[in-house]
Here is the input.
Amino acid sequence: MADTPAPELHWPKDPKYISQSTRRIDAVAKLTGKARYSSDIQAEGWLYGMILRSKWAAARITSINCEKALKVPGIKAAVTVKDGERRIHYYGEELAAVAGTSKTACLDALRAIEVKADELPFAVREEDAMKPDAPKVWDDTDSNVSKPKVTERGEVDKAFSECSAVVEGFFVTPVQIHHPMETHGNTVSWTDEGVTAYASTQGISSVRDGLAGALKVPNSQVRVLTDYMGGGFGAKFGQGVEGTLAARLSKEAKAPVRLMLTRFDQALAVGNRPSSFQKIKLGATADGKLHAFQLESYGTAGIGAGASSAGGGGGADFPAPYLYKIANDNVRVTQTTVAVNAGSARAFRAPGNPTASFAMESILDELAVKMGVDPLELRIKNDPNKERQQEYKVGAERFGWKEKYKKPGSSPGVIKTGIGLASATWGGGGSKNTRGEVQISPDGSVEVRMGVQDLGTGTRTVLAVIAAEVFGLKPEQITVKIGDTHYPPGPGSGGSTTCASISPAIFDTCTNALQQLQTQTGIADARGENWLGACKKLGVNPLTVQGKWQEGLSSRGAGGVQFAEVAVDTETGLVTVKKMTCVHDCGLIINKLTLESQIYGGVIMGMGYALYEQRVMDRQSGVVLNPNFETYKLTGLSDMPEFDIVLLNMPERGVIGIGEPATIPTASAIANAVANAIGVRVSSLPITPDKVLQALGKVPTAKPESVS
Amino acid sequence: MNNSDPGKAGSFSRRSFLKSIGTTAVATAAAQTQSIAAELEKANAETTIGPGAVPVTLQVNGEALKLQLEPRVTLLDALRNYSSLTGSKEGCDRGTCGACTVMIDDTPVYSCMKLAIEAQGHAITTVEGLAKDGKLTKVQQAFMERDALMCGYCTPGFVMSVSALLKKNFRPTADEVRHACVGNICRCGTYPRIMEAALQAAGVATAMNKTEVITYG
Here is the structure.
C-alpha cells in the first residue's frame, strides 16, 4: 500500500476533467449559507469569547483584575494572558479574555476588567525606532536595528564604473494588512478527553501542534477541524494567542468557547506584510545588459524584527536582486530590519516578493528611460527565464504594447494614460509528506479524505477532479472530506504548494485504490461504466486505500508577466487601472476555472498594494490609526479594470501552484504605468492621489520624506 | 419584563420621538395640546424597553423567529448567535464590508447596523431563504457557473446585494451592478466574476474579460 514502491506515475495524456473547468463542488453550500465556517460553529452550550487588548504601545503591566468582569451577568470565565507583572510591546497586545453567554455580556465584562500599568516610551515608525536614542522595543537589546545582512559578489564598484548608464532611487513600501473576510479565531472545547478546535486556519496540522504545545496536551488529544474558512493569505497558520485563550476559557467555563477576533483586532495583532525602504542603484552596459546592482534596505516586521532574540531576528528581508540577471553577479546587498512597537509581521502572499519587485521593476524602468530603450526590450534582454520569454511575447502582443508605448509624460490632456509591465517568479512545488485516503463503498460511492483545508482556492474541487479522472466518474460523484486532523496529513495551505502537494498524493491514492479494486474483483477495467458493477463485487466492506505524494507529478518554479494600463487624473491625482493583461505559467493546470479565479484574486490584491492599502501608525500615541475598512481601503468592484488572462499550460512539468506569483508583479506594473503616464515617478506605495499631486509639483508645502 | 407583546417594540421610535418633541409641541399647538398630552401620558406609562432581554419576533425567510434579546442586540447578532441562521457573515460589525447584507422588504440592509427590535414587522430574507426546495435562484446559479466565489465568506452578502438589485431592476447595466455592490468587499478578489454572474443572472450579455489557455513552446 502506502509504503510499497509505487510504479512510476504519469498524469493522463488525454484527461477528461484535468485542465478543464470544473465548478467548485462546495459552491452550493457557500451560496446557500449551508457551509459552516469556523465562526459559524454553534457547539452545544457554546459561549462567546472576547479579548481585552493593550491600549498602550509600550507598558509595564503591574496587575490585571478580572473580579468585576466575572460578576457581569452571563460571564462564565475570565483569564489573563499572564499573571503578575509583564511587559507590553505594542498597541493591541492581548491582556485578558472573557467568555460569556452573549456578545453584549462580553463587551460589558471587558470594560469591567481593571488593568494597572506604567506607560513606557515607544517608537512606532521605522525612522524613529532607528535613532540611537530611540526607546527600545525589547529590553534585552541596545538597538532596535538588526545587524545588517550583507551579500557581496563579483566586483561591484568596478562594474559600476564600466556601466554606460547608472540610475539610483529610493523606494518605499507600506505595511499591508491581510484582512481576510473571516477574522482569525476558533471555537474550542477543552475537556478531560482532550481539545477540539474548529479553527479558521490555513494549517490544521500546525494549529494542532501549536495548541498541543501551548496547552501541554499530547498531540493525540488535540483535534482540529476546518470545514470552511474565510481566507488567510498567510496569516492563519498558528493557533495564535486567541486560540490558546479560547482553550483556557473553555476549560475554565467547562463549555465550548467561540472566540473570533473583531475587525479592529485584526488590524493590530495577527500579522502584516513588512514595510521596506530601499536605496537601490542599477547600472547597465551600452548593450543594455544589467551589469551592477546595489541595494541598502531596512524595513519593519513590527516587534518581530530587529536584534532581539525574543522578537525574532528577521521577517523584513526580501530577495535581491529580484528576478533579473546581473552580469558576473556584480551584486552588493545590505539589509537590516527594525523593530517598532507594532504587531508582528506574518507570511503574506508571496512574502518579500511584491516588496522586492516594486523597487527592482521601478528602477529598471528608470534605467530604460535613461538609456532611451523600451522597458519591455530591457526585460527581454535581462530575464534569464525561458517561460517568461514567451510570456513577454504573448502578453505584449495581446496587450498591444508596441502600439501603446509612448515616451513617459507624453500623454496629452488632463487625464493621462500610461502603460507598464513587471514580472514574477515563485518556487511553489509540493510537500512530499502529503498523504491521502479513499474509501470506495459497495454502492459505488467514493469518499476522498485528506487533512488539508480549503483556503478558498478550490482545494476540495481539485481533489474531486483528480479522483473523478482516475475512476472515470464525475467530480460531483466524489465526496471530499477535508479539514480534520484525523485524516491522513495534508499540507498547510501556503507558499503556493497546496495543489502540487495534494494532487500527486490523491492521484497516487486513487491509482492504488483502482488497482486494488480491479485485483480484488477480477474486473480488468473498473472505471466509468464498469464502476458500479465492480464496487458491488466488494461485498460487505468498503475498500479503504491510502497513498502518498510521488515524485514526477509536480515541480517547482512558476512565473508570470503582467501588463498594466492606467489613467491618471493630473488635477485630482486619482489613478484608475484600465486594463491588466496577465500571462502566467504554473505547469499542469488542474482546474482552469478556479485557477483563473486565483489570478484575478492575486491581481486585485496587488491593486490594493499599488493604490490603496497601508497601515498608518500614530507616532504620538502609538496606535494604529486605521484599524477598520473605512480608513484601511481595499480594492472594490468598481475599481475593476478590463482583464485578459492567459495561462501557459505546461503539462510536462506537472503541478506547480499559482496563488502567489499572481500577486507579485501587479503593483510594480501599475507603478510603472503611472510613471509612464505622468512622466515622474511616485516611488512609494500606495500611489495615493496626494502623492501623485506631490510628484507633479502641485503640493508646494509637503515634505518629500513624509511617508508613513 | 412587562412588555410581552413583541409588536409593541415597533412603536419604540415613535414614542421616543413624541417624548423629545413633547414640550415644544405642547407650547405651540394649543389646539392639539390635549391630545398630545394624552399621547404623552400614554407613552410615559409604558415600560422602558431593556436593558434586559425582551421578546422579539422576526419574520425571517417567511417564518416567525421568536427570540429573547436585549434591545442592543443587532439583527446580525440575533441571526447568527441566537438562531442557527449563520449564512449572513460578520466581517466587520460596523457597516463597512457588506458580508452581513440581508434583504428587509426587498431592500439590501447591513444587518450589523440594524437593531433586531427595529427589524420587527418586516419581511427579512437571508441567504438561507433564497433557494426554494433546493433549487438555486438565477443569481446563485450564475455565481456558481461563473465561479464568483472563492473562500465564500463575503459571498452571501454579494448574493443578497445582487438579488436585491435584480428585484428592482431586471436588466441592470454594469454600472448599476457596480453601484449595487459598492458596499460589499471581497478580499479573495472575485469581483470580475461577480460582475459577470450578476449580468448573466439578468440575462445581459457580458464579454468584458478574456481568459485563454495556450500551450508553451
The beta strands of chain B are 54-60, 63-69, 101-104, 107-110, 123-125, 210-215.
